[in-house]
What does this fold into?
Amino acid sequence: MIGLSIIFFSAIIILFTGIQKPEKKSKNLTVFSLLVAALFSLFENLEVINTQTLFAWVPSSMLDFNNFRLSMVALVLFLSAIIIGLMPSSEKKGSDLLGLTLFALCGGIIMLGSNHLVMLFLGIEILSIPLYVLAGSDKKNLFANEAAIKYFLMGAFSTAIFLLGCAFIYGGTGTLIFGEMQLKVGFAAHFGEFPILIKLGVILMSVGMLFKISAVPFHFWSPDVYEGSPNRVTSFMAIIVKICGFVAFAQLMSNFEPMHSWYIKWLIPISGITILLGNIAGMVQKSVKRTLAYSSIAHAGYLILFLLIPYAENAQILFVYSLSYGLSTSVMFYLIDKYSTADNFDFTIFKGIFNSNKLDAMALILAVLSLAGIPATIGFTAKYVLFSKAFEYNQWAVVIGLVGSAISIVYYFKPFKYAFVNENLLTNRESSLLQIFYLYWRCYLL
Amino acid sequence: MEIILCPLVIALLKALLGNKINKWIMSVLSIATLGLVIKVYFEQVVALNSGVWQTVFDKPWFSDSIRFTLGFDGVTYLLLLLTSILTPIVISSVSYNRHKFIIPLILVMQSALNGVFMAKDGLMFYILWELALIPIYFITLLYSHKDAYITTIRFFIFTFLGSLAMLASLIYLYLKTGSTSFSYEALINIQLSLKEAILVGGGFLLAFAVKIPLVPFHIWQADTYTNAPAQGSMMLSGVMLKMALYGLIRWYMPLCGESISYFQPAIMVMAVFGVVYGAIIALKQNDMKRLIAYSSLSHVGLITAGLFSLTLSGFEGGMLQMFTHGINVVGLFFVIEIIEYHYKSRDLSQLGGLAKHHKLFTILYFVVVLGSLAAPLTNGFPGELMLLKSIFDYNSLTGIVAGLTIILCAVYMLRMFQLSMLGESEIVMNKIDTVKLMPLFIISAIVVYIGLNPQSLIDVIHPSIQHIMEDIANSKGVLS
It folds into this structure.
């Protein structure tokens, strides 16, 4: 809760003090406020500070930050700090973009803490609307414009479907509060048959959420949008939106746990198709950004496997998985941003990186190994805990996940094809201090 | 523990000092690991006679259920010995212009391999198994030709897919223990139904069959060996294949013993087919590295068939042959590296008449060739004899077919020797340093010593093999 307030107020400050100032001037303040907010959320989680009296006026049926949610909030804030801190900010654009990013983040945090369907919906909207603007923030770029329009249309469409689902749920259970909903579904479970309204509502809400995390068959917008948007916005979408969206989805579904055996019947095929299609389509891409878009689709498939596991058991592994995915993907986007040029997003951008910049090459190797889930990186730990838990509930889904991981090697390892080429085409680009800190994080061995 | 850490420390030293430290010093330094292995052996020598897999190190790793446990017994000792003898030799063969990264990678790989041979915890075994794959991937990627990327990635995906199947099997077994332990003792005590054993064992077998490799899974092998730098081929064929064979004995058979009789005929056919198939293809090869790749396919096929005959002589012969095959194949790749370095070619149709230039080299080369083709009084002979005997015991037909290897192996090995060394010389000569032949001299000495005294190795592994066979028998007995 305190993290949300800090981010909200600093967003307002940055938005208004930063008018007509270039982005660069507000960057430090943004990163600072993000880190402070992350720190305070962590303190709140560890009960170093007590904020209950301060926020007593917030009804817990609306927003409730329990331990797991607080640690997710801290993680999301930390990852955003990394994304904004690592990516260079331009001289030309205004600070309002950073303010908008922080507002979007507020939406994400509300999604994480929501205990009420209306709050969840509000969170989704607050997260999405600034992102529609941000996706098109590169006004001169035609692809960015296309991405913005596409993202806006798809987002609006999926939100409408989600709302329709909420309406059905309200019709079926007579409440919008998560806790009461859970009770009603529990009652229905006693009578054996679930009302058709609830079933329809769950399906429609899932479709809306699956749009947000870009799972197959609702993924088709994401490669274009990811490719067209500016790099920072893309990494924000690929990491923050996906993590917040999925955690909110998992929390939502946890209310319908008595229907578990029913909804995994259609979620397992979706997960399997997402993993396979994301990985197979990723193999044939030429552009690095598109490849990462498909990689993030595949990761959405792995994330859905979490729904096989009862909600009470998966909190810790969800955290580890999000951490691993967020760290590795943000490094990849950082490297892409550093080495790509306006018209070249080919894998050849990594040519000679091993000779020109050892530190970047190490970061690349670690990020790739971690994304691919090779042992002794955090990516393996995350995948291992996920698979070994999900294995108890459905073996075949995990087998598909394993096959998908093997396929993903084909495209994850593509940068290596160029990284060690002995041509010193690139000038030596220096690495920032932040990145060294970052590498230290990535080296977190098991 | 120090056996795993020692190579890492040396690798770090090289990575930090860079060009200031040359390969001969590295080579000598890496002998330290051999010293440590022998030291642990003498510490444990009494306990080893019982054949039980001694625990020498044990610490919780992730949580209490996944531990960092190291074991030590005769089988482990033999393979550690092999790894730590070969690593200095491999390092000494590195040519001057490329030693900066390859030596640390080789040492990291050695450390992971040592870990694999000692791992007494299922997940740790898997993690180190994968870790051994990363350095070899980078060795082949960094130092092979430009077009070899596809080969490398194919090799990596093949093995990775196999190991993922093994991971699935391990997780299944872990859940069977009630999610309490990955330890070897816990996994070995699990009782599986036949169907479970077939699925779980299939996962293990896929991982091992890709790496051994057995015939339908071998298509990565020849290209990878040919494109990789000589050091990569040495590490791959000398030690890495042994990892899979070791996995068969130590992990697959005792853990999923129920499924052995189900898979046995198929594996036998695949292995024996591989023996003949590899040998026949090797007959026609002109590229020396490719020839050795196929001969290696043939040899490991024989070892696999021997192991799956489930007899004492099969196991002991298999272990012995694992050791000698490692020594011989590294010797042969070493010879090829020298020839290629000095004559800029390894094509048999261009070589010839090298014997005139350097007598000592010719003699050492011939000793290694004799060891490979299993001439009596060389190290190849006792192992191969025991293996053929056990395969013959299993089924006389497979025995006869596998026995063809004696003739075929002699034909292609001697053909290689003849075409490269004898005849008229047309190639411009480059002088070979005698110092460079030191490692080859050591290899030849081992070839002859084991050929004369194979019992010294068999004595070491005998109690452990017997203990493992008891485990397998227990595991099989659950069904009946």
Notes: Chain A touches chain B through 26 residues (CB under 8 Å).
